[in-house]
Amino acid sequence: MPRKVVQGPIRDKEKTKQKLLAAVGKILRVKGYSGLKVSKIAAVAGFDKKLIYEYFGSTDKLIDEYIKSQDYWSQVNKDVEVDYSDGGHELTKMVVLNQFENLKKNKELQKIILWELSENKPILKKLVEQREEVGEVLFGNISDPYFGEGMAKRHRAIMALIVSGAYYLNLYTGYNASVFCGIDLKTEDGRKEIEQAIVELIDFAYSKKK
């Protein structure tokens, strides 16, 4: 008699982990961050909640792994190959435009950003710190040496306004209305206007070096 093949989470740990992570995303989309309870995550994934502790250690670590996988800036330094001799000018345009488009498409990340703005939790503070670490790599190694001590902080301040604006316009469009300053951000033409403005502002920031 052939030996019975055991199917299920014990046999396929990675597949189970991915289903648990996907359950976090589904709950964020449908219920928001208030729905991220251990029993709810386990039920949506279709597994016993003990597997969350077995594979991730805790619910917070599961959520942490999920939000890090969704966060744009946590992934931005992977597989980026550009010429840095311009002080990150072209790199900056690329990553900020990609951020603007990424947040439009990623409804789960929109929920995560709103969560960060509404609650003070260690898991969210850790994500913010991870973003700052990525930013420090880009600023400290690329743009700061290019601009020099006198102008590096001003460049960072300009970039703070551009990046935060890209965040806010997507959140505003996703949760309130489509028109901001008379520009319909749910149309292709409207988004192109914002994208062109981002490029012009970054070009302006780099023109200050000359």
Can you summarize this structure?
This protein is mainly α and 210 residues long. The protein has two domains: 9-69, Orthogonal Bundle (Arc Repressor Mutant, subunit A), CATH 1.10.10; 72-208. The protein has helices spanning 13-30, 38-45, 50-56, 59-70, 72-75, 89-105, 107-118, 122-147, 152-175, 188-207; strands at 179-180, 183-184.
What does this structure look like?
The chain is mainly alpha-helical and 210 residues long. It folds into 2 domains: 9-69, Arc Repressor Mutant, subunit A, CATH 1.10.10; 72-208. 70% of the residues lie in helices and 2% in strands. It has 10 helices and 2 strands; from the N terminus they run H-H-H-H-H-H-H-H-H-E-E-H. It has helices at 13-30, 38-45, 50-56, 59-70, 72-75, 89-105, 107-118, 122-147, 152-175, 188-207; strands at 179-180, 183-184. Strands 1-2 form a two-stranded antiparallel sheet. Strand 1 and strand 2 (183-184) form a beta hairpin. Helix 6 runs parallel beside helix 9 (152-175). The longest helix has 26 residues, at 122-147. Mean pLDDT is 87; it is low at 1-6.
